[in-house]
Every structure is written in structure tokens, then in C-alpha cells.
Amino acid sequence: MKSFKEMVAGYSRFRSGDWEEQRQRWEQLKDGQSPQVMVIACSDSRVDPAQIFDVDPGEIFVVRNVAALVPPFETTPGRHGVSAALEFAVQFLKVREVVVMGHGMCGGCKAALTQDLHGTKPGEGGFVAHWIDMLDSTRDPIAKTLGTTGREAERAMELAAVKVSLANLRTFPCVQEKEASGELDLRGAYFAISDGLLHLLDEDSGEFAPA
């Protein structure tokens, strides 16, 4: 894996390669951005949305966090980073689609399933535990049926997490309004690291199928 020093060398290659090749694109982007799609993905280093979807700079508005989770609409005090990004994308950039993309071998979903971090202090796992407890109610039936270890249970948790985030998206008034008017579409996706396959959610059936 590369160090930051090696990444800076990569920046030099970018400047003399891709940046020069797309100079006109970057010139346009200096005046603003107008992506049509927002992608909510995991912070996991193996699942870069721009790489997976092979898009140019400025084409997707991306938010990444542990397990690609969206919290429900809340007005309680706190730092609502995902909510702020969603609000900006929907209300100001006026994106037409929001995609929640989960992935295989997700550490956050695994922790939600095992609950190994429950009871830990902030800074020692507590921040993660409080974040992924959004999945607790979904986790229980999976744990009862499939247990809390093994890929079958983990995959079930990973797929379920996408549905939880979609449900939470629909608690935001701006999302409700724009989805009802046809101005906004919500989509669920799942990227399998092991074979590189992207799966899309059919919300009518509740099933994921290869894209």
C-alpha cells in the first residue's frame, strides 16, 4: 500500500497526465458543479465510487462514511454531516438521483452484526458503535436466523443496511417532496469486492440482482 509521499508522486503523474488530457473539463468545473447523481458509499478503501462507475470529475457528488449509512431526519443538536451533504445535494445542487451503495466484506456491517463494539468508550470504538446502532433493529432477525458470524449472515446484514439507509432517506421532508413529484429517484446498490460485480436493488421485490 502506498504512503502519502508516494501519493504525492502520483499527483505529479496526474498533473502531467489526466489533468492535462481533461484540461477543458477542469476549466468548466472552476465555475461550479452540476452533478445529477449523489452516491452515498462506505469509507472502505476498496470501494471508490468514481472508480467503480468510471466517471469523470464533477459527475457524481459523493458522501462516504462507515457502512454507507444515512441517519433518519433529526433536528436534535449535533453535527449532522450526512444530513448536511444530503440537503446540499438535493436542495442546492438539485441532483436527480441518490444512490446508496453498500459493499461486501463491510467492517461496519460486521461490527453491527456481532455488536463487539457495544459499550466501548468514544475514541475506543464508541463513536463507531453509536453510528452503526442504526442497524440494531434490522440486525436482530438476521442474527436469530443466520447467527452473527459467517459470510451468509454478513452479506444479509450488508444488503439490509442499504434498505435501512433508503428508508431513512425517505424521512427527510425534502426527499419526500421531490420523490413524490418525480424530481428525485432513490436507488440501492451493492458492490461485491470478491468478484467486482455491482448489484442493483429492485424495491418492488426487495431483491438485489447483477447490473
Give the topology, please:
Elements: H1 4-16, H2 18-21, H3 23-29, E1 37-42, H4 49-52, E2 60-65, H5 81-93, E3 97-103, H6 107-114, H7 126-132, H8 136-146, H9 151-169, H10 173-181, E4 185-192, E5 197-202, E6 207-210
Parallel strand pairs: 1-2, 1-3, 3-4
Antiparallel strand pairs: 4-5, 5-6
Folded structure, characterized:
With 211 residues, this protein is α/β, with parallel strands linked by helices. It has helices at 4-16, 18-21, 23-29, 49-52, 81-93, 107-114, 126-132, 136-146, 151-169, 173-181, and strands at 37-42, 60-65, 97-103, 185-192, 197-202, 207-210. It is 45% helix and 18% strand. It has a 6-stranded mixed beta sheet with strand order 2-1-3-4-5-6, covered by helices on one side. A hairpin with a 4-residue loop joins strand 5 (197-202) and strand 6 (207-210).
Short description:
The protein has helices at residues 4-16, 18-21, 23-29, 49-52, 81-93, 107-114, 126-132, 136-146, 151-169, 173-181, and strands spanning 37-42, 60-65, 97-103, 185-192, 197-202, 207-210.
Anisotropy-based shape: globular
Strand percentage: 15-25%
Distance between the termini: 30 Å
Average pLDDT for all residues: 96
Q: Give the helix proportion (percent range).
A: 40-55%
* Biggest sheet details: 6 strands, mixed
The string of secondary-structure elements, in order, is HHHEHEHEHHHHHEEE
Uncertain runs are none
Total strands: the figure is 6
Give the strand order of the largest sheet, numbering strands 1, 2, ... along the chain: 2-1-3-4-5-6
Number of helices: 10
- Class from secondary-structure proportions: alpha/beta
Using the CA coordinates, give the radius of gyration. 18 Å
